[in-house]
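Deliverable D4.2, example record:
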Amino acid sequence: MKKLINQIQRLALDGHSDFVSWRRHLHQYPELSTEEHQTAAFIAERLTESGIPFSAGIAGTGIVAHITGRKTSERTIALRADMDALPITEENNVTYKSLNQGVMHACGHDVHTSSLLGAARILQTLREDFGGTIRLIFQPSEEKYPGGAIRMIGEGVLTNPTPEAIFGQHVLPELDAGMIGLRPGKYMASTDELYLTVKGKGGHGATPDKNIDPVLIASHIVVALQQIVSRNADPAIPTVISFGKIVANGRTNIIPDEVKLEGTIRTFSEKWRAEAHQLIRRIAQGTAQAMGGDCEVFIDPGYPFLVNNPELTAQTKKWAIDFLGADKVADLDLRMTAEDFAYYSQQIPGCFYRLGVRNEARGIVNSLHSSLFDADESSLITGPGLMAWLAINSLQ
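Output generated by the structure prediction step:
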């Protein structure tokens, strides 16, 4: 075991400059969900260089590759990385700053893709040391509903044969570079988008008695819906309802005819999730009607909550400790963020873990989805190496 660990760590260290170069290229040329054409072409070039067979055009721009060990085994496992970027204008002053205006790898998918490419090269080099097949899933559109995972599953990425397990890795700026973190069982929340249209009767702001003010109604609805969490949700089931967009389009002296609200609900129970949807509709419509208006409610179902297979995650923790050391492996809390990796882990045993990218000394501390997010690139030693190590161990 120690010999194999040393081999993987050496290959990860030797390949680090290439992995960093790949990440910086992807960071400079980010592409939005469903538009990852150059990204897919770049991945295909790197796989071709390593002699790894692949299929392109899965779920649009996705790529699926396979590495088969030379020892005898029929087992198959999967490794997944997402590859889309976000509609954010980067504010970092770095040489690899995004060149695509208004698009940025602010969630670290450039690191995920580079890590999986690096792991692929390591595994291709070590084919004599394992048996079985490793399926590499380069997934588009994690950031945009309905997500790339469900489409790739629909196009057979988990069949012929079905992998026994799947691993996903995601950066976490709260963890120092060189560390990873994981949590068995429920880990990330379900997520649904809320779209409300509050209708009233517009008019002059100086004569509110002659109007039905949708701005006031919308304000009451936002406050009332917060009470679903405080007074209806089981305290043992984490729940969040947040609104991030309110559009009235009136003026200082114009009350508009309608107001549009956009928000999200996140939780960890499918039963409660469905009940909360009904409460949102009833409270929003009832509040509006009580004030003389009306409210149209559209709830767009998003990703389910993510569950890490307890047995696989416990084994992953043990393997990670063997590879990195116990001081580099952290236990994580629940997160109210969401991930479409949840679709994979609904189908087969999955482990979705976190890769540390923080470096306070260098000022790399900003959160995901921030215009200042960046990653300490020493994580591109840990990330590829650990993925390769987990793949080989899970096949044995």
